[in-house]
Amino acid sequence: MTTNSASARYEGLGKDGKGSITTRSGVLSDQPYGFGTRFEGKPGTNPEELIAAAHAACFTMATSFGLAKAGYADGTLDTQCTVTLDQADGGFAVTKSALVLKGAIPGISAEDFAKIAEEAEQNCPISKLLDCEITLEKSLES
Questions:
Q1: Deepest of 50, 56, 84, 86, by most Cβ within 10 A of its Cβ?
Q2: 134 pLDDT exceeds 90?
Q3: What SUPFAM superfamilies does the annotation carry (predicted)?
């Protein structure tokens, strides 16, 4: 079993409040977040950005391990993830996580690449965690 942790602090309430996020690893240390960073494009992060980063990282690693298991020894994977936050049921909900994968894997067929990427999308831990629509676009560079 692996565990990780992070903490958030929010001073003030509602739109006027200001928050900060810190991770156990220290990669985020008092990183600012709040209404302005979430809805107004101000500097800092927000929960959906962090979810997008986690999903992109998890899915890309799962694809990498799937390719290695299938016998491929080299290549590059680049994933962009866009998480959508919509108003729903009188509040807000994450409604979609869209993954766009570009891969350069010597010797792989487009069919094998697609199969391995689709299995990774369905089975990476963050995909399993998310209760929203997940889409996957994939392209193989020669």
A1: 56
A2: yes
A3: OsmC-like (SSF82784)
Q: Are residues 15 and 81 located together in one domain of the fold?
A: no
Claim to verify: residue 71 and residue 109 sit in the same structural domain = yes
Q: How many CA atoms does the CB half-sphere of 36 hold within 13 Å?
A: 10
Question: What is the identity of the amino acid at 18?
Answer: K
| Ramachandran quadrant class, 30 (left: phi over 0; alpha: psi -120 to 50; beta: rest) | left
Tokens read off for 22: 């810190």
pLDDT at residue number 20:
96
Range of the structural domain that residue 61 is part of: 47-140
For 5-70, what is the HEC assignment? CEEEEEECCHHHCEEEEEECCCCCCCEEECHHHHHCCCCCECHHHHHHHHHHHHHHHHHHHHHHHC
Is residue 32 domain-shared with residue 91, that is, in the same domain?
no
| Global confidence as pTM | 0.94
Q: pLDDT tens for residues 107-128?
A: 999 999 999 999 999 999 999 9
Model confidence at 99, pLDDT cuts 50, 70, 90, reads: very high
